[in-house]
Design brief:
alpha+beta, Alpha-Beta Plaits, 31% helix, elongated
Amino acid sequence: MQSAKDANAPRLHILSVLVENRAGVLTRVAGLFARRGFNIHSLAVAPTDDDRFSRISMVVDVQSAPLEQMIKQLDKLINVIEIDELAPQEAVSRELLMATVSAPPDVRSQVIELVQIFEGRVLNVGQESVLISLDGSPQKLDDFERLLRPYGIEAMQRTGRVALPRLHQRTSLQIVDDQVS
C-alpha cells in the first residue's frame, strides 16, 4: 500500500544528459531504456553551443523503474558526460506545439484570437484551415490543445520537453553587500 507521501510524489522527472555528439549515442541511450523496461515520456536532442556535445532532455516515468537506477545505468554509457536530474521547481522547461486547425472563414477569427490569447503564432493560412505554433510549459500546451479540439485539429505535433536549471536569483541587497565586501 502506498503512503500519502508516495502518492503525492511526482511521477515524471526531467533528466538533462550531456553526451558526446557522435553517431549512435542516442541509439545506445534509447536501447538501454528499452532493454531495462524504462519508460521515456518525451525526448528531445540537439547539439549544444560546443559542437562536440549534445544535450538529451528526457522526461522519464519513475513508475517504470526507480530514478536512481535509470541514472546509474545511463552513467555506465561511455559517451555520457554528465547527468542532471532537474526537479520541476528548480528547472525552466518548455515544449513546442504545432497544429493545423480547421478554420473556415466563419470561425477563423475565433481561432486566431485563441492563438493570440495564448501568445502563439499563426504560421500559415489556407482556405479552410490555419497552421499555428505555441511554445510554453506542458500545462499551457495541454490547456491550449483542449480549447482547440472543438474547432477540429487536422494534424498536430508536440516536441519533447527541453529544460535547463533555473538561474538562482540574487536580491539587490545581496548584490550590494557583495560589492561592498
